[in-house]
Amino acid sequence: MRAGVLLSGDPVRDLTAYLDALVSFLAHSLAGAAYRALIGEAQHDTAVAALLSSGDILGESAARVVEPALGAGDSELSVEQATALLVGPPFFHILSGRSVESVDTRRLAEEFTRVLGVR
């Protein structure tokens, strides 16, 4: 997934826009459906698992909005830890078959900035 998100300088706004794009990708696009299928297949196919572990497309796309938020906060999380914290909840929500409409991206972004101690 490419994060076609232009940064505004407002961490909550930027993180919300990223999460909106992520949810749309995972829940509504053919590429997102294929990605979800690969994640499932990787649970029992070592070749698929190796393919997925060779690159972290969600982490790489999220890093674009996570790094500025980390810089504005007082967290000691690494970029990798912070991106997992950001993308984990919506990713789990969608993969577990819950309604996409109940993913509150704004609230997730607000909570994320609180965890990071963004000023």
Secondary structure layout plus pairing:
Elements: H1 11-28, H2 30-42, H3 46-53, H4 57-71, H5 79-95, H6 105-116
Helix pairs in contact: 1-2, 1-4, 1-5, 1-6, 2-3, 4-5, 5-6
How would you describe this structure to a colleague?
The protein has 119 residues and is mainly α. It has one domain (11-116). It has helices at 11-28, 30-42, 46-53, 57-71, 79-95, 105-116. Helix 1 (11-28) crosses helix 2, helix 1 (11-28) runs antiparallel to helix 4 and helix 1 packs across helix 6 (105-116). The longest helix has 18 residues, at 11-28. The chain is globular. The mean pLDDT is 90.
Task: Write down the secondary-structure element order.
Answer: HHHHHH
Strand count: 0
The count of domains is 1
Dominant shape: globular
User: Mean of the pLDDT scores?
Assistant: 90
Strand content: under 5%
How many separate helices? 6
**Radius of gyration (Å):** 14 Å
Major pleated sheet: none
Chain oligomer state: single chain
The stretches of 5 or more residues where confidence is low (pLDDT under 50) are none
**C-alpha termini separation:** 29 Å
Structural class call reads mainly alpha
Percent of residues in helices? 55-70%
